[in-house]
């Protein structure tokens, strides 16, 4: 079984670092672009809603990209492992912006409404839970934490599969009907979770039967 | 006895519709040599109406927003789909059948219908179930005027509406993942249908309805969520039992038959206490306001519901 965590960590030389910083910068462009449009009132008649959904969509895209890294390596041998942490962090930054826009621009900081929403609506509870689970992952996505946590780091970061399930359902519920966009993203996320479960089960079997 | 009250123009101030039509024909005839009674399609673009009794203090939502941001699932799920994908939709010739429990069923030609009805402008607030709102100057006539001609029988309790099915012209109706059952159907209780606020709109901003807004004729019930406003109506049927309605069938826990705007009864997935005002401008336009009971039309319509439990019958 290929090592799923920590690999690529030895290559924290400057060129790689610059490469990853560039990826982070490029990854943030969609948000910057739409913020620019929004500030100029070019996001149509319902700009806050468009921006909020755009940020959520990109959070899902980066989460999916991060989850694709391992299956891609196992299936094709192409390893993008050194970019995975950036992809995961991008998912987190987009989730943070998504939540911020919901709180500050959409609900205009109305705490009573926010509390009411988060405590009663499964749709928002799922989204909020996903964001809460992403927090410890984002906070430990650095070399120091990886060294410090050792094997526990890998176990902690298995939480991302919980995030994927929560996000898949949250994303499906964000639309009034099932549609091509929501169903395909949710299916892709669930496929990553399933793939991982099967992959782990097989690895365990191989170890059990030497 | 009318429970509602609103300013009414003096009878003498209103130009009889027929007279107004004949003036139009005279003008058209003088320049184009058109015969009296020739195709009413001559009125297609500019729909001449007069100010109606119901106005609103709010500023109307810009025409561009009204016509480029709306739901019309027959053309797709996106808010921009109706305006970009409705070009192939043909709204002439068109008939509207008034049938069922009525003394005088009739299949109306749309232009004959528009010519026969008192078309007037009404500025209505529009509250979508998705928690956004607009203020739209509709042109139309009270549904009650049409129903009066049909004379509902004593056994009629509800009005069922049916929209058009034309997959060749409506890309949202062609297979795939589209999850609404076609045709789109809606319904009202007879007293709701007869209420003077209930409008069959044939235009907006003084012109005939654009395809994307439900041409050639659509329902507007301003104290209910927007999805009650069935578009491109082909059939109006008086019935005895509560008719099925599209969104209610799709998800009964989220969309009721009545669908009255009610800030105290939330959608399971979001609050209905406030709404985003469409066209408020940019991120910081402050475009959110409190939602009003019955969308602010309580004075006119609250009496329809008496002691009904509006939490149960949402």
Automatic annotation (TrEMBL), chain A:
Any Pfam family the entry gives: Ferric_reduct
GO cellular component, one term: plasma membrane
GO terms, molecular function: electron transfer activity; FMN binding; heme binding; metal ion binding; oxidoreductase activity, acting on diphenols and related substances as donors
Subcellular location: Cell membrane; Membrane
Domain Ferric oxidoreductase: 55-167
Keywords: Cell membrane, Electron transport, Flavoprotein, FMN, Heme, Iron, Membrane, Metal-binding, Transmembrane, Transmembrane helix, Transport
Keyword Membrane: yes
Any one of the GO BP annotations: protein repair
UniProt remark on cofactor binding: Binds 1 heme b (iron(II)-protoporphyrin IX) group per subunit.
InterPro entries referenced in this protein's UniProt entry, alphabetically: Fe3_Rdtase_TM_dom, MsrQ-like
Domain of life: Bacteria
Predominant location: membrane
Cofactors demanded by this protein: heme b; FMN
Transmembrane segments annotated in the record for this chain: 21-39, 54-74, 86-103, 123-139, 159-178, 184-201
Purpose: Part of the MsrPQ system that repairs oxidized periplasmic proteins containing methionine sulfoxide residues (Met-O), using respiratory chain electrons. Thus protects these proteins from oxidative-stress damage caused by reactive species of oxygen and chlorine generated by the host defense mechanisms. MsrPQ is essential for the maintenance of envelope integrity under bleach stress, rescuing a wide series of structurally unrelated periplasmic proteins from methionine oxidation.
Complex formation: Heterodimer of a catalytic subunit (MsrP) and a heme-binding subunit (MsrQ).
Family: Belongs to the MsrQ family.
Name this protein carries in UniProt: Protein-methionine-sulfoxide reductase heme-binding subunit MsrQ
Organism expressing this protein natively: Komagataeibacter nataicola
The gene coding this protein: msrQ
Automatic annotation (TrEMBL), chain B:
GO biological process: protein repair
Transit peptide among keywords: no
Keywords: Metal-binding, Molybdenum, Oxidoreductase, Signal
Catalytic activity: L-methionyl-[protein] + a quinone + H2O = L-methionyl-(S)-S-oxide-[protein] + a quinol; L-methionyl-[protein] + a quinone + H2O = L-methionyl-(R)-S-oxide-[protein] + a quinol
EC number(s) recorded for this UniProt protein: 1.8.5.-
Cofactor: Mo-molybdopterin
Sequence similarity: Belongs to the MsrP family.
Biological function: Part of the MsrPQ system that repairs oxidized periplasmic proteins containing methionine sulfoxide residues (Met-O), using respiratory chain electrons. Thus protects these proteins from oxidative-stress damage caused by reactive species of oxygen and chlorine generated by the host defense mechanisms. MsrPQ is essential for the maintenance of envelope integrity under bleach stress, rescuing a wide series of structurally unrelated periplasmic proteins from methionine oxidation.
NCBIfam families the record matches: PRK05363.1
Protein name, as recorded: Protein-methionine-sulfoxide reductase catalytic subunit MsrP
Gene name, Swiss-Prot/TrEMBL: msrP
């Amino acid at each position: 079984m290929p090592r799923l965590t920590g690999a690529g960590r030895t290559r924290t030389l400057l060129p790689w670092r610059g490469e990853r910083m560039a990826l982070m910068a490029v990854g943030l462009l969609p948000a910057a672009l739409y913020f620019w449009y929004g500030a100029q009132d070019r996001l149509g008649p319902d700009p806050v809603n468009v921006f909020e959904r755009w940020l959520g969509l990109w959070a899902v895209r980066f989460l999916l990209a991060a989850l694709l890294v391992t299956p891609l390596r196992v299936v094709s041998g192409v390893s993008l492992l050194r970019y995975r942490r950036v992809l995961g962090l991008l998912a987190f930054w987009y989730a943070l912006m998504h939540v911020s826009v919901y709180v500050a621009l959409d609900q205009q900081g109305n705490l009573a409404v926010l509390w009411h929403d988060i405590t009663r609506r499964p749709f928002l509870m799922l989204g909020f839970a996903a964001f809460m689970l992403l927090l410890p992952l984002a906070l430990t996505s650095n070399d120091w934490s990886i060294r410090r946590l050792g094997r526990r780091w890998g176990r902690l970061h298995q939480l991302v599969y919980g995030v994927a399930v929560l996000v898949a359902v949250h994303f499906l519920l964000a639309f009034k009907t099932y549609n091509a966009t929501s169903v395909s993203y949710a299916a892709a996320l669930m496929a990553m979770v399933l793939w991982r479960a099967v992959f782990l089960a097989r690895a365990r079997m191989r170890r059990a039967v030497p | 006895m009318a429970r509602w009250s609103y300013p009414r123009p003096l009878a003498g101030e209103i130009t009889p519709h027929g007279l107004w039509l004949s003036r139009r024909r005279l003008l058209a005839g003088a320049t184009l040599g058109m015969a009296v009674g020739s195709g009413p399609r001559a009125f297609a673009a500019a729909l001449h109406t007069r100010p109606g009794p119901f106005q609103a203090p709010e500023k109307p939502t810009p025409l561009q927003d009204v016509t480029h941001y709306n739901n019309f699932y027959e053309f797709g799920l996106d808010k921009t789909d109706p305006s970009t994908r409705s070009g192939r939709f043909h709204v002439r010739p068109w008939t509207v059948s008034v049938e069922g429990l009525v003394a005088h069923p009739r299949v109306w030609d749309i232009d004959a219908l528009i010519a026969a009805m008192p078309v007037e402008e009404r500025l209505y607030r529009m509250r979508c179930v998705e928690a956004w709102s607009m203020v739209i100057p509709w042109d139309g006539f009270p549904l009650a005027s049409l129903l009066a001609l049909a004379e509902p029988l004593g056994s009629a309790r509800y009005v069922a509406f049916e929209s058009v099915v034309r997959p060749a012209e409506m890309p949202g109706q062609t297979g795939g993942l589209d999850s609404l059952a076609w045709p789109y159907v809606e319904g009202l209780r007879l007293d709701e249908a007869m209420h003077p606020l209930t409008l069959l709109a044939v235009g907006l901003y003084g012109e005939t309805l654009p395809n994307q807004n439900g041409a050639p004729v659509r329902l507007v019930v301003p104290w209910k969520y927007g999805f009650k406003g069935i578009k491109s109506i082909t059939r109006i049927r008086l019935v005895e039992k509560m008719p099925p309605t599209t969104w209610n069938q799709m998800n009964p826990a989220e969309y009721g038959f009545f669908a009255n705007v009610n800030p105290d009864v939330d959608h399971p997935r979001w609050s209905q206490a406030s709404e985003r005002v469409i066209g408020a401008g940019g991120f910081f336009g402050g475009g959110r306001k409190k939602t009003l009971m019955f969308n602010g039309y309580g004075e006119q319509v609250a009496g329809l519901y008496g002691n009904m439990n509006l939490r149960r019958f949402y």
